[in-house]
Amino acid sequence: MHLIGLCDNYRQWAMAAHESDFVPTMQPSIDASGHRYVHVVGSSVWVHDSCADTQWTTHFLGMHGDTACWGVDVPHGQDPADGAAVDLRTFFGRATETEWAVAGRAVQLVEWGRTHKFCGRCATPTLIADNERAYTCPTCRLMSFPRLAPAVITLVTRGHGDDEEALLARGVQWQIPMYSCLAGFVEPGENLEQAVAREILEEVGIWVADVQYVASQPWPFPHSLMLGFRARYDHGDIVCDATEIMDANWYRRDALPMIPPGISIARRLIDDWLAS
Ligand SMILES: [Zn+2]
Q: What is the pLDDT of residue 225?
């Protein structure tokens, strides 16, 4: 179990908290008025104002207003929620946007802890670092930080005015006939704009230009950071990579297929386009 001492630089994070009501910090504020424990059961969450078992490993998440938030690693085979824990997609409909982000952070940090118990280089059991979010190896000093996998997601458009069209695609894994923006992970050695262009070319054979960043979104399934872009069609005909894309088409605003729910940044990219 990792119990972390109280933070004395309250003023610094309180100023940041003024701009956002959740601040991811290393330690709780000395002025915390309460605690919230996000119990991570498998990859599902159950939130309670006390920790179900103080012997379980906890990760401090940050301050939500003046509430100290913790992630609790519920050991495999145990369930303090008696089946009431819900996956993050379900939790999205039951929580505020901030509460959902805090729960997502809990899942990511708990999963990071579960998968970094041993050094990746020499297999020695790791220790939690004292003053930063890391596991360290006492033998070879390798440090392991929380894993984030950046992924780009892009809405490609062509044409103008009422005739403008967006390129939407259905993934081969999707059980429902939903169409969304094209997405993929950033490769080592490329920048974000290059990742956008490469992914779209690989998945549907389209060349794009004028790649513009729009917004980002933590995506804890299990540890992505989604980076949303717009891009303009340049040239090429749609040729789907059958290993990833079942179908892709150009759609006008007045003839859209089923699009993703509000939880995803894909939906925001599409909604922004619809409103433009
Ligand atoms: Zn090591």
A: 95
The CA-based dihedral angle spanning residues 54, 119, 77, 51, taken in that order and rounded to the nearest 10 degrees = 20
- The band of 20, judged by pLDDT with boundaries at 50, 70 and 90, is low
CA of 125 to the centre of ligand 1 (A): 8
Partners of 258 in beta bridges: 178
Burial of 68 (0-12, 13-18, 19+ CB in 10 A): buried
Span from the CA of 174 to the centroid of ligand 1 (angstroms): 40
- pLDDT category of residue 21 using cuts at 50, 70 and 90: confident
Domains for the chain: give ranges and CATH numbers: 10-115 (3.90.79), 119-147 (no CATH), 149-275 (3.90.79.10)
* Å from CA of 37 to ligand 1 middle: 31
Distance 129 CA to ligand 1 centre (A): 14
Regarding pTM above 0.70, the answer is yes
Q: Rounded to the nearest whole angstrom, what is the distance from the C-alpha of residue 128 to the centroid of ligand 1?
A: 13
